[in-house]
């Protein structure tokens, strides 16, 4: 335990924390997206999945784990950003600012905006504060009607627009995150570069397109709110 705490005190230790928590969060994003895609199969499929998740004995363990991983990711990112900023001499700071890519310069800002989206998203679908009139539907089997909540919710162009904008931002954040993760875990070898770039770009694109397809297909009228 002491060793772990000492490792966290070093820069490489904190980069490792970012890498491990980043991979776990991407795992969550993939499974969350696949789960949400049950909306394309209809009400029964999505409400069954949502009810199964809520009834699962490990729900609170998973929630606590996710919160810990997410908290570690945010706090470590902020501490690394403060450290990087303080370590740079004045001249280097100017030079590096010019050389840095758009994504690495704005990584902290995009991360904080994703955090803001997450708060809005929980207020929307988990607590039902954004569209409260859509939160209390119950289906024929007395389950929370997550399907109707989502389908009717995304019929509002402002809600859909805000999700699409957030997913593009998430893609921007993940694009940079994937590149620095690869550097941290030491795969940044010339011969692997192209393969790794294609792999991480494909994963990020799949997440952005997959997530955006849900609100956009609903807004375009491809998902029937009355479908069983
Ligand atoms: C278009 C994209 C997305 C859709 C349609 C969506 C949909 C949903 C829905 C319907 C719920 C509530 C489930 C329920 O109460 O049964 C939920 C919860 C949640 N979503 Fe999303 N989501 C999306 C993107 C995201 C993203 C990008 C993140 C993370 C950055 C995220 C993180 C969460 C979390 C943490 C919860 C709470 C899970 C819990 O209750 O334990 N979602 N989402």
Short recap of the structure:
With 228 residues, this protein is mostly helical. Helices cover 77% and strands 0% of the residues.
Word description of this protein:
The mean pLDDT is 89. It is built from ten helices and no strands. The N and C termini lie far apart (52 Å). By secondary structure, the chain is an all-alpha fold. The chain is 77% helix and 0% strand. The chain has helices at residues 2-8, 11-36, 43-55, 59-87, 90-99, 102-105, 107-126, 146-153, 157-184, 190-219. The longest helix is centred in the last third of the chain and has 30 residues, at 190-219. It has a single domain (2-219), classed as Fumarate reductase/succinate dehydrogenase, transmembrane subunit (3 helical TM bundles of succinate and fumarate reductases), CATH 1.20.1300.10. Bound molecules: protoporphyrin IX containing FE. Protoporphyrin IX containing FE is lined by residues 29, 32, 36, 50, 63, 114, 118, 121-122, 125-126, 146, 150, 163, 170, 211, 214-215.
Protein traits:
single chain; 228 residues; mainly alpha; 3 helical TM bundles of succinate and fumarate reductases; 77% helix; binds protoporphyrin IX containing FE
For the terminal residues, how far apart are their CA atoms?
Answer: 52 Å
Q: Given this structure, which CATH class is correct?
A: Mainly Alpha
Mean of pLDDT? 89
Enumerate the distinct ligands: protoporphyrin IX containing FE
User: What order do the helices and strands follow?
Assistant: HHHHHHHHHH
Spatial shape: globular
Number of helices: 10
Output the CATH topology.
3 helical TM bundles of succinate and fumarate reductases
Radius of gyration over all CA atoms, rounded: 20 Å
By helix and strand content, what is the structural category?
mainly alpha
Proportion of residues in β-strands:
under 5%
Q: Examine the secondary-structure arrangement and name the CATH architecture.
A: Up-down Bundle
Estimated helix fraction: over 70%
Biggest β-sheet: count, sense, barrel? none
- Identify the CATH homologous superfamily: Fumarate reductase/succinate dehydrogenase, transmembrane subunit
| Low-confidence residue ranges | none
Strand runs, count: 0
- How many domains, in number, for the residues? 1
């Amino acid at each position: 335990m002491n060793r772990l705490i000492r490792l966290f005190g070093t820069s490489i230790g904190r980069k490792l924390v970012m890498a491990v928590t980043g991979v776990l969060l991407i795992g969550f994003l993939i499974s969350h997206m696949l789960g949400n895609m049950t909306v394309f199969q209809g009400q029964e499929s999505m409400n069954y999945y949502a009810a199964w998740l809520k009834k699962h004995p490990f729900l609170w363990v998973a929630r606590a784990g996710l919160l810990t991983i997410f908290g570690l990711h945010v706090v470590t990112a902020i501490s690394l950003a403060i450290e990087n900023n303080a370590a740079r001499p004045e001249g280097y700071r100017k030079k590096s600012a010019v050389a840095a890519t758009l994504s690495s310069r704005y990584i902290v800002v995009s991360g904080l905006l994703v955090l803001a989206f997450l708060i809005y998203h929980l207020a929307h679908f988990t607590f039902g504060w954004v569209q409260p009139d859509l939160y209390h539907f119950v289906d024929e089997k007395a389950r929370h009607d997550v399907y109707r909540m989502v389908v009717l919710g995304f019929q509002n162009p402002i809600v859909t627009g805000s999700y699409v904008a957030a997913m593009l931002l998430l893609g921007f954040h993940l694009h940079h995150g994937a590149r620095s993760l690869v550097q941290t875990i030491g795969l940044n070898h010339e011969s692997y570069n192209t393969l790794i770039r294609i792999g991480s770009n494909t994963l990020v694109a799949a997440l952005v397109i997959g997530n955006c397809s849900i609100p956009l297909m609903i807004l375009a009228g491809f998902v029937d709110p009355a479908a069983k």
